Design the sequence.
């Protein structure tokens, strides 16, 4: 009986256990695996290890054109690619993605590889600035 | 009055997963129950033969959400047995810590669902409130709430820092306190006893004959817990299996409730004895041979059979899950019970249909 009265008084003056979602969003822990946010297109050597190790085949790496692409909703966020990357240049964001009706891809394009032997050309190709294009449904 | 057939499921408020039971009824009494499963078959065993054996760790983790970590653990243990990989001591203890955290969250989920199945909403919410703390600590330590993906062939992916260990200990201590308060309701409340005591009695001999596993078997007095065989680091930890002898739904509830405390004790002991060192043994090559691994999931014994042929693809992967072993005992308990008790009886075997159908 006294337990119950104590509980009633406690419940009247304590904060609710639930959150007022979507206005109050839970703080995600720092090392949470939310989603892969992309790579550093300049540091990446486009070796394709992440593509081979990805359990859901969500990553496509093109060594010739120097592009790295991930299908975000195919990714199961296991962080295998982050672990195996020899350059440690795949970034993971702690924020979880919300559901969507559209396909979501992240495309990272590196600048063209500098030629090993300097070609005797009149004009040298201008190195492009790194482009990290994001085609996102949640943008 | 003639017989009536009531289709119970596949969509029913008490069932989180699709299981259909055709109940042959006379008045309010069940005469016979005819199960029909196959609504969530995904062909995971076949898919495992077409994927790299390392990718399969993530695949088998998705056999079932609630015991995901232990599916990966048993698969990794099977591959390690084939390739004769000795894993580091620290990894063995880490595996126990995460497995027991998973056991707590599974048992709390079950206790909540049980309370919900007989309409005790506030108890359901109290239990799930404490479960949320376990989910949060899983996310803090491993990065994900359910699919923690900590196990890999040769050890673990992740390590626990000193601070994370403290966090885990604080969380399990607070869950312990919460459960001590809730325990009074489960053990003394009139409503709970009225709905559970003497309902669905499964005597020890019949439980043994039907091959019942896990908490179901232990509630019927069978002392059978795979953890006592000492896989991972369980051999270095001290514990006794929780056993009840009544064999009714209340006994099953008590077994799972006391196993929450047992898991908390195991986590404390494992963190206390956690050795320093590596968490992963590097290895090379592909598995060649076959292995059978059995271990104790929250719901009971799981069996993994792996046959490999020296390439990166496996020849065969066979999974026998605890719910598959417990379904015959459910069909034994249902005849003679009243329709109102059917949801409680289905819940007491802790059904996981995704596991069963894979």
Sequence:
């Amino acid at each position: 009986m006294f337990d119950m009265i104590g509980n009633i008084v406690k419940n009247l003056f304590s904060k609710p256990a639930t959150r007022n979602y979507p206005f109050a969003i839970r703080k995600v822990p720092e090392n949470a695996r939310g989603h892969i946010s992309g790579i550093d297109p300049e540091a990446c050597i486009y070796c394709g290890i992440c593509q081979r190790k990805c359990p859901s085949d969500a990553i496509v790496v093109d060594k010739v054109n120097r592009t790295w692409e991930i299908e975000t909703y195919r990714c199961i966020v296991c962080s295998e690619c982050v672990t195996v990357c020899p350059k440690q240049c795949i970034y993971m964001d702690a924020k979880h993605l919300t559901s969507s009706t559209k396909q979501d891809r992240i495309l990272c394009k590196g600048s063209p590889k500098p030629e090993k032997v300097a070609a005797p050309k009149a004009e040298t190709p201008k190195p492009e600035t790194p482009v990290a294009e994001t085609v996102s449904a949640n943008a | 009055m003639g017989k009536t057939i009531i289709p119970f499921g596949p969509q029913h408020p008490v069932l989180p997963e699709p299981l259909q039971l055709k109940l042959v009824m006379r008045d309010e009494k069940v005469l016979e129950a005819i199960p029909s499963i196959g609504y969530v078959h995904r062909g995971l065993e076949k898919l495992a033969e077409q994927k790299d054996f390392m990718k399969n760790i993530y695949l088998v983790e998705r056999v079932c959400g609630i015991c995901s970590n232990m599916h990966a653990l048993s698969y990794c243990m099977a591959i390690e047995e084939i390739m004769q990989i000795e894993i580091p001591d620290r990894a063995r203890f880490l595996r126990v810590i995460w497995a027991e955290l998973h056991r707590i969250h599974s048992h709390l989920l079950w206790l909540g669902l049980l309370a919900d199945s007989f309409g005790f909403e506030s108890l359901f919410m109290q239990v799930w409130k404490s479960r949320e703390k376990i989910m949060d600590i899983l996310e803090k330590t491993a990065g994900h709430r359910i699919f923690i993906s900590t196990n890999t062939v040769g050890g673990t992916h992740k390590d626990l820092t000193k601070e994370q260990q403290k966090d885990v200990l604080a969380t399990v201590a607070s869950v312990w306190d919460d459960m001590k308060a809730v325990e009074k309701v489960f053990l003394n409340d009139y409503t709970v006893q009225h709905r559970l005591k003497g309902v669905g009695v499964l005597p020890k001999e019949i439980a043994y004959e039907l091959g019942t596993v896990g908490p179901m078997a232990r509630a019927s007095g069978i002392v059978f817990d795979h953890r006592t065989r000492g896989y991972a680091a369980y051999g270095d930890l001290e514990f006794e299996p929780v056993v009840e002898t009544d064999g009714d739904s209340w006994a099953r509830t008590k077994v799972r409730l006391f196993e929450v405390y047992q898991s908390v004790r195991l986590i404390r002991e494992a963190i206390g004895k956690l050795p320093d060192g590596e968490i992963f043994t590097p290895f090379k090559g592909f598995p060649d041979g076959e292995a059978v691994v059995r271990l104790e999931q929250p719901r009971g014994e799981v069996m993994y059979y792996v046959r490999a042929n020296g390439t990166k693809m496996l020849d065969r992967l066979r999974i026998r899950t605890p719910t598959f072993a417990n379904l015959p005992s459910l069909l034994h308990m249902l005849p003679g019970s009243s329709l109102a008790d059917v949801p409680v009886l289905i819940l007491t075997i802790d059904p996981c249909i995704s596991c069963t159908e894979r």
